[in-house]
């Protein structure tokens, strides 16, 4: 379970990284829309696992690899934003968050199920 400090830092990092992806580095990733869906931070606040979701892109793995290559630059932008709140800027590890795709797939499976109605029950007197 995360401590309150971890939760606060994770929320702040999520907000700052979202702004970095949408404003400062948007031109480097083309027309793709990048959403920071979740951030999990280690107890010592040194490693942040960042979960990303992508829209308007064909090859998500290629975009994720590009982001991983530019992680040093992203971390530098993040450091400029959090330098007064954190002693060290956490190392960033980026992961693809596919929960929305998984939920859509499950909805499609459930919609395709043919469930027959239950047989009528006889009333007891």
UniProtKB/TrEMBL annotation:
Spell out the Pfam families in the cross-references: RBFA
- Could you tell me the keywords of this UniProt record? Cytoplasm, Ribosome biogenesis
Highest rank taxon of the organism = Bacteria
Does the keyword section mention Cytoplasm? yes
Cellular location(s): Cytoplasm
InterPro entries, per database record:
KH_dom-like_a/b (IPR015946), RbfA (IPR000238), RbfA_dom_sf (IPR023799)
> What is annotated about its quaternary structure and interactions?
Monomer. Binds 30S ribosomal subunits, but not 50S ribosomal subunits or 70S ribosomes.
Functional description taken from the UniProt entry: One of several proteins that assist in the late maturation steps of the functional core of the 30S ribosomal subunit. Associates with free 30S ribosomal subunits (but not with 30S subunits that are part of 70S ribosomes or polysomes). Required for efficient processing of 16S rRNA. May interact with the 5'-terminal helix region of 16S rRNA.
Name the protein family.
Answer: Belongs to the RbfA family.
This chain's protein is named Ribosome-binding factor A
Q: Which organism is it from?
A: Nibrella viscosa
């Amino acid at each position: 379970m995360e401590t309150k400090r971890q939760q606060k830092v994770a929320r702040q990092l999520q907000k700052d990284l979202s702004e970095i992806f949408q404003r400062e580095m948007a031109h480097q990733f083309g027309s793709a829309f990048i959403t920071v869906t979740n951030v999990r931070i280690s107890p010592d606040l040194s490693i942040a696992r960042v979960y990303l979701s992508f829209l308007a892109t064909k090859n998500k793995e290629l975009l994720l690899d590009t982001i991983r290559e530019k992680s040093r630059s992203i971390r530098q932008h993040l450091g400029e934003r959090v330098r007064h709140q954190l002693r060290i800027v956490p190392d960033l590890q980026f992961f693809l968050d596919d929960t929305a795709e998984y939920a859509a797939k499950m909805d499609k499976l459930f919609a395709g199920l043919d469930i027959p109605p239950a047989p009528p029950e006889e009333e007891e007197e």
